[in-house]
Structure formats: structure tokens, C-alpha cells
Amino acid sequence: MESLKFETAFKYPFNRAKGMWNILWIFVPIVGWFALGGYSVRIVKEFVGGKFDKLPSFSFSNDLSLGFMMLIKAVPFMVVYGVFDAVVGKAGDITMTLANILVGVFVIPILSINFFNKETVASFFEFKIVGDVFNNIGDYLMAVLKSILLSLVFLVLSLVLVGIPAGAFTKNIFLADFYRRRVGK
Asked: Which of 61, 80, 115, 184 suits a disulfide with 124, CB 3.0-4.6 Å?
């Protein structure tokens, strides 16, 4: 399966530009944040499904419900990660830094995509999929580098404001593409 092209990822939010207005929900405290969170989960699910055509339509009530439920389902993982961070923190500065970098780059992103895709508490704890990251390390690192490059491009475009929603809605596009092509294959 061919990997997602950078140009396709760049054009994605602009293929349905009016969808970028949904970023304004960020100004509605709590309720808007949950709705935007649910919308982001749906976007990632579309990426995993190979849909890179355009931003989906926003559904306030459905996205609000999904965003709230995903936060509730993520609480057990947040607790486990907090305990991990506390334990690693006692090991010393360099150990803590290295462990946090490794977990932050190689574990949490792929588990998050898995969680968004499956929407279950258990999916956040499917650590076996991290093996797919290390079995395809070159491809994974390329996805991370493309993500960083796309973020930098949209950061520059933030000067004209369009980069803010474009970057927010595409931040997981390359990792979701990696997941689509490599996880569980």
C-alpha cells in the first residue's frame, strides 16, 4: 500500500475550506472543546479509512457526545501514564528525559491513533501495536518527519490565519496513514 503524498496532506483541509471554520468552536469553553475533540476523532478515523479527500461535515451534537465520551474513556490511560511518569521521574533526570522522549514519540502517538480508531478503553492499552512501529521504524520515522514538516508549513501559514485550522485538522494525518498501512498487517 502506497504512503500518503505530502501534497495530498497539504491540500486536504483546503479541499473543503469552509470546514476549517469549525476551529472557531475552540472559543466556546468546554462544550465547543468537546465538540471539536469529537470532530478531530472523526477526522482521524477517516484518515485510517484512507479518506483523504476533504474535511467531513461537522455535526455538533454527535461530535460533542463523541468528544465527551472519548475523554471519559481516556481517563484510565491518563492515570496509568501519570503513574509511569511519576515512577520514571524518580529514576533521574537523564532517564526520565529519555523515557519520556521514547514514549512520546514511539508509543503514545500510535496508541492514540488506535484509540481514536477503535474508540474503546482497551485500545489505549494494546501495547502490541508498538511492535508494528519498531518493525517498520523507517516508515514510522518518515511519517513523523512529514508530520513535523507539514506542521512547520502550516505554522508559516498561521501568519495569514489559515494555517491554524489547517494544522489542527491535519496534525495526525501521516501517523494515521502509517497506522492504516502498517498496524496489524
From this structure: 115
